[in-house]
Amino acid sequence: MADPVPPPSDPWSAISPTDTLFILLCTVLCWPIIPAVGLGYSGYSTRKSGLASFYPALLAISVCSIQWWLVGYSLAYSEGSSVIGDLRYAAHRGVLMEAVGTIPALLFSQFQLVFEATVCAIAVGGACERGRLLPLVPFIFLWSTFIYCPLAHMVWAENGFLAQLGALDFAGGTPVHICSGATATALSLYLSHPLPHRFSRSRRSSTRTPSHITLHRPHNTLSQLLALLIIWGSWLAFDAGTTLSLNFKSVSALATTNLCAAAGASTWAAITYIETRKWSLDSTFLGAISGLVLITPSAGFIDLTTSFFFGVAGALICRQALRFKSTDFARRIKWVDCGDTFATHCVGGFVGTIATGLFARKEVAAYDGVTEIDGGVFFDGNVRQLWVQIVEALIGFLWAFVLSYVFIAVIDCVPELEVLATDEDIVAGMDESQMGESLYEAQWAGEEDYHPFGKGNVSLD
């Protein structure tokens, strides 16, 4: 006897086991990118702040997971208004019984959760080496709810303002990179320039001095290496999985992402070699990241050849942007770009989002057999798309930067939630004051003479 055919009203009748398995694998493969971002920040930090620079990524995973289950998914992907969703799916009510395309809605939710947590991990890195960890907990919840979720809704929800405007953003040029770069910049600038004394507890404190941090090289190359390997691989799953089904567009997105990252890594590393006659892991890391950033909004809209030139351009532009932090002007305005987030994610996000409007192609977008777009300027003559992309990028930056600065300033006014660490803690290293643990010798303070057998005094019955 044949299995009964489910009624058309049953959402599970639309579920494809192949697509579900594909997105499930992409979700699992993408998850390591969150702690890998922490590894990257840890590698860039001084050795006495390495663990404290990694830990915000774990806070991002934890707080974002709770926020996403409670209200985040609903605010990002329920109908609501053109700016933010409603609370229809609060606490994931009814999500299990619905489908998104050919996959379960719950799986779609978890895949998108990884996006939010990854963006958050990048964003809160702006507080590395100077910011206390406790204030990041309420900040992450506020950021996720009022910054990321509205941007995700505006760009990706069917009734979102920017989606209705016609913005092309395949996997997050604005909600991911411009948003994270703007937030990291806002955090860093606030730590350098808190509110006046009568409001800011950080400014009011006699033990805290908002100041510039002397530039230094990355202190843990192994952390950078591991971060690079994980982020590069996970990003392939990010962009391939964004199609939400296994089709030719998934393969195309994966291929363009890899080529763009390779072009960026090769370009940046080659320039460094020409200048110094030595190869540099740091240059390779930053070049790959710049390529991955540029391809994120365009992976589903451009071909392989275009993606190669995106990677080259991304490395050249982001490398030039990185020079700003070494200028005397940057020192005078107390500019601190921890992990080079502004130069890669913010600048790269702007360039990638705008370049998508120039080089997007109708035929590439249609590789999934469903998507229809008007294309970009050069291949399809759609000049309007360029202006739409500029509007999207500007809205994303201003939304994230302004609200991030406001949220961290409000938190800094709350007793016990001073954002800036004390001068003594910054000098000693954030591991000692924030963690009580370290990746280095401080972990074993007081146990220098430890011996597993009590210095040889072993007694056997």
Automatic annotation (TrEMBL):
It is found in: Membrane. Keywords: Membrane, Transmembrane, Transmembrane helix. It holds the Pfam family Ammonium_transp. Residues 22-440 form the Ammonium transporter AmtB-like domain. It is a multi-pass membrane protein. InterPro entries: Ammonium/urea_transptr, Ammonium_transpt, NH4_transpt_AmtB-like_dom. The keyword Ligase does not apply. Coiled coil: none annotated. The chain crosses the membrane at residues 20-41, 53-71, 103-124, 136-155, 221-238, 250-271, 283-302, 386-408. GO terms for molecular function: ammonium channel activity. It comes from the Eukaryota. The keyword Transmembrane applies. GO terms for cellular component: plasma membrane. Belongs to the ammonia transporter channel (TC 1.A.11.2) family. This is Ammonia permease. It comes from Aulographum hederae CBS 113979. The lineage of its organism: Eukaryota, Fungi, Dikarya, Ascomycota, Pezizomycotina.
